[in-house]
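dumping this here so i dont lose it
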């Protein structure tokens, strides 16, 4: 973290997240980026709750990470579309975070993700701070992430190309992560994989950026889990209903069998009585029915 030359002299303390802007006043979201951020956050939360039973982690969605003090302050911030920081409180002094200020907390994000809205050159720009001049006021995003903010992983997601590039910080520089046999990119400290999922989220069919666990199982959103639970409950209800119908049918068949048995018993009794009357009639005429 640095204090830029443009900062006023006589600074006695560095500003915190409550004193720094939380917006640069520009529109940076399209109709896909907002649900994409929610999809990433919603589906990873159960995993992060297991990793952090104390709740000490923070997720930023299109939030500023301040790494340099400048005038205006926004020039000293990068704004990943999505990032996760481990082992930090989700709020500060009871206040919701307005931004993430590196000179206050020092812990870099474990992963930062950029959603490409142009040709991707901005997200891959490696122009260093030393080349700043009057026509250029900010260094390249890739350079800032690699050399200053230093997330353990940096991902560049391009919905138009249905692709994601993942970089891993190794010995102070980013190395491209190779996809595994499933076409996913392992983020080992989180125990998850990042990749492209073609499907419908909300009411839009797109190649969405999503998480899988290390065994290749898709991490579901709360809504998806609720749908599966409803389907499971409906299946169990139908199974129980079918079992009840089978029991009822078995009882009906048993009752019918009892009725048939009673009819047979009554028929046999009628035949027995008829045979006895015939035998008595023969005996009355001096005939032994057993000799017939």
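and the seq i came up w/
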């Amino acid at each position: 973290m640095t204090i830029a030359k443009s900062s006023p002299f006589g600074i006695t303390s560095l500003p915190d997240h409550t004193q720094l802007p939380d917006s640069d006043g520009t529109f940076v979201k399209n109709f896909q980026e907002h649900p994409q951020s929610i999809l990433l956050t919603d589906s990873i939360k159960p995993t992060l709750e297991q990793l952090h039973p104390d709740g000490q982690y923070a997720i930023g969605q299109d939030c500023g990470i301040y790494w340099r003090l400048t005038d205006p302050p926004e020039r000293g911030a990068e704004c990943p579309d999505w990032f996760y920081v481990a082992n930090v409180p989700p709020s500060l002094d009871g206040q919701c975070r307005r931004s993430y200020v590196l000179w206050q907390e020092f812990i870099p994000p474990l992963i930062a993700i950029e959603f490409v809205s142009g040709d991707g050159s901005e997200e891959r720009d490696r122009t260093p701070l030393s080349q700043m001049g009057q026509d250029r006021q900010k260094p390249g995003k890739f350079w800032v992430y690699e050399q200053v903010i230093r997330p353990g992983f940096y991902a560049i997601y391009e919905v138009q190309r249905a692709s994601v590039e993942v970089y891993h910080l190794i010995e102070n520089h980013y190395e491209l992560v190779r996809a595994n046999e499933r076409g996913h990119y392992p983020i080992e400290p989180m125990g998850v994989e990042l990749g492209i999922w073609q499907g419908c989220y909300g009411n839009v069919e797109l190649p969405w950026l999503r998480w899988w666990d290390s065994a290749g199982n898709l991490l579901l959103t709360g809504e998806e889990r609720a749908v599966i639970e409803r389907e499971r409950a409906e299946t169990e209800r139908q199974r129980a209903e079918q079992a009840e119908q089978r029991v009822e049918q078995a009882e009906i068949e048993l009752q019918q069998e009892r009725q048939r048995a009673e009819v047979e018993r009554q028929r046999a009794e009628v035949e027995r009585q008829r045979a006895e009357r015939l035998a008595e009639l023969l005996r009355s005429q001096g005939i032994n029915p057993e000799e017939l």
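The domain at 2-218 is CATH 3.90.1570 (tt1808, chain A).
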